[in-house]
Each structure stands twice: as C-alpha cells, then as structure tokens.
Fold:
Amino acid sequence: MTKDNDYEEKSLEELEALAEERKKAKIVSELKLEDDKIQEEAEKIKLTEQKTAWEEEWYKAHPEKAPQEKGGLDVVGEVKGNGDGESGLVKFYNGYYKRHENMETRSQYEAKLSTVKDIKFQIYEGQKYGEVGMDRLFANTDSDSGCGDEIASWSPDDVYAKIVWNTFVCKADLFKIAVKGIAINPGDGLGVQIRAFGAFGAPSEVGACGCASCASISFTTYPLTLKQYNLEAIVCEKDIWDVGSILMDSYLIAMGDSWAQWFDAQIYSELETATPGTTEQLPVDLSCTPFIGGSCCTDSSLVNLYNAVHTAVASMREGSGLASPYNPDYLIISPTVAAIFKRMQHAQPIPWMGDVSFDDDGRLKKMSGLKVIEYCGANSCTDLADEVVAIIIDSRRAVGAVFGERPKTYKFFQSNCNSYRIDQWAFFAVGELDTDAIAHIINAS
Structure:
C-alpha cells in the first residue's frame, strides 16, 4: 500500500492517474460480481427446469407414483407421503444440490446431473467416478432375447439371510504401477504418445582457441491407443418382483468386480508378454512344494529366487546392457511364488534375508527395496521351463494404462419385454512402454 508521504511526493498528474486506476478497478470488480450473480441465477433456473423435466418424465413412466400420493423420497427411490405437497424428486435434488454447493463450479455439478434418467441411485464396486459419484446413476435401455437372468435358486422358498455373498474375483489395483500423468480427452483422437529424449554425450576437453563440436540427442515416442469396451446384462422385471431389488444390486456389483479384474489382467499381460530389458534365469526350476526343515540354505528355490531378484535389481540400477540406468520399485509375483519366501528353515527368518518383510496379514510386503504386489492373476509357482515367475518394474516408465472414460452405466427399460438392459461402457488404453524398465525372472530352460 502507498504510504501517506508518498502521495505528497507525487505530481498532480500522477495522483489523478492513480485515482482513475482505482476507480476503474472498483468498477471492474463490481461488474464481475454482477456477472457472477447473473450467471448463478441463470444456472439455478436451468437446473430447476431440468429437474422438473426429469420429474415429469419419471412420473409418466411410473403413474402409480404420481403426486396425488404426496411427496418424499426414501433411500431406495420409492415415493412416499410427506404432507407438504412438494414432490419427492424436487426435495431430493434441492437437498443434494445444497449438500454439494462447494463443488468446483455449479455448472460442472449440473453437467454431472445431465446423465440422470432414473431416480434409483445404484452404487457398484470396483469403479471410480467423479467427485460426487454422479456417474453411478443410470438410465433405462432395451432388452434382448437369450440373455435373461436365471434366478431360480433365489426364488423365495424359505427365509433368506440379509447378508448376500458375492464371489471373490482376482484384483490387485495394478493401476498404481501404471505411468502417471497420461490423459486422453474427447476430441483428442484415439491415441496418445509419450515423448522421450535420449541422454546427451559427455563434455569434451577443448584446447586454447579450440572450437566446440556440437552433439545432439535422440527423440522417440511411446504410443497408447484408446479402445472401447462393454459389459451387458438383462434383468427381468418379473424376477425383480420375485427376489427383490437385491437382484439388480448384485448385477451391478458383479459387473464392477469384472471391470476391476479385467483391468488388472490387461496391465499384467502387457508386462508378462513384453520383451524385457533385463532377464534373470534361475539355475534350476522352482520347487513349489512347501519346505520347512533341514539346515540353513538347503531350500534351493528360496535361495535362487532371492539371488535372482537382487541380481536383476542391481542390473537395472546399474543399467547393464540398457540404454540407461533405471530405478525399479515394484516386484509382482503370485501368492504361490511369494510363499517360497515364507518357508524359512526351522520356521525362523534367515539372517541374511533381513530385507524381506511381511505385512500383518502375512503377505510379502518388501524385498530388495521393492514394494511387493502379491497378485492372484500372476503366473503361479511352476517348474515349467522358461516360465516368467516374477516381474520387476520401474513404474515410472514400464506400462501405461489410461481411461478416455471410466466405466459408465446405462439402464434402459423396454416395456414390450418388461426387462432392463444394463450396459456399461469404457474407453481404455493399455500397453507396454519402455521395455528396458521391465525385468523378468524365469525358470531354467
């Protein structure tokens, strides 16, 4: 801020110019506030109109829920009376809007609401969405023959427990090992390329009055291509009446698990089928039979695998046979391979294996400075010749996995079939990138 004695030192022209600047700044600030208020009011009006349209559309499809029954909305989307004459949908959306006023912008909130076609809000596992989860809402589509659900085993002949079990699927969230900072947005095409440049040569000595010799660096790219993927199911309305809304919930949870399992499998496949920059071959094939006993170091599979991991890590860090050194940070193995490190002689840790540690659940956690992922989809322990039994990566460069659009759910109702078609669509790209950032440990030939 300008001090008082500074004003005294300024000329009349300078003071008048300063006053004009302040006047202009004040007017600009007031106009911006006015524009923001106008925009806010316009967005409120637009959102209210949209909510009214949704309400009318829903009541047309569900006349039995019409406002003459009064309003209110319970947690499963059924309209109930509340005595105040305001429709359940309007109350719900108004409340939801108020709870999320602090989103990045109200227009972004409205954009998220634009996907809503049905008031039943179903949430399913294994998928990530926007900040308030609006992508979890779904709308109705048509049916198909030959894809009906088979629910005979759930049709009530007895009283069922409230708990419902779902089949466990193999998933380990391998997205955490994918290269970060890759994005493909609508309109960008179906591909993305990561640019890379090589190292510069070493400086050279130049004598007195000598002239420098220029050098250059190499330029390469690593591409990923976006593809479209789908899951689809048919759920019959009659079967929902038979067994209840848990039927629809079960489909959505199972589909979410399917995506999670599939994404992990694609990432691992890229790493396992890549031609690695570093390969460490075991002197003999792994023995997968549990072994506790004998004198120290008689478990050759334990010792050989331990040594192979350390050798591969050292080779990558040194850059042996590679274009440059790497910094490996993850080891990916199956639980049956990880079990080899758990079968210590005399049920005691071997002193020189102090860098092997386990978590509270007994899973292998760290080894040779690497974070370990016990992935049920990795190659199981085997004595098959040349089989990949462990993968080491530098996660900054090894594999890319990126969404154009995360799995998005649509649920459409076709009245002539009285069934729901559930479709989930995703745009996803995955691929090996810098294969020098990948190391394989394989069985003997």
Remarks:
- The chain has a mean pLDDT of 76.
- The two ends are 78 Å apart (CA to CA).
- The chain has three domains: 44-114, 152-198+217-269+407-428, 275-400+434-442.
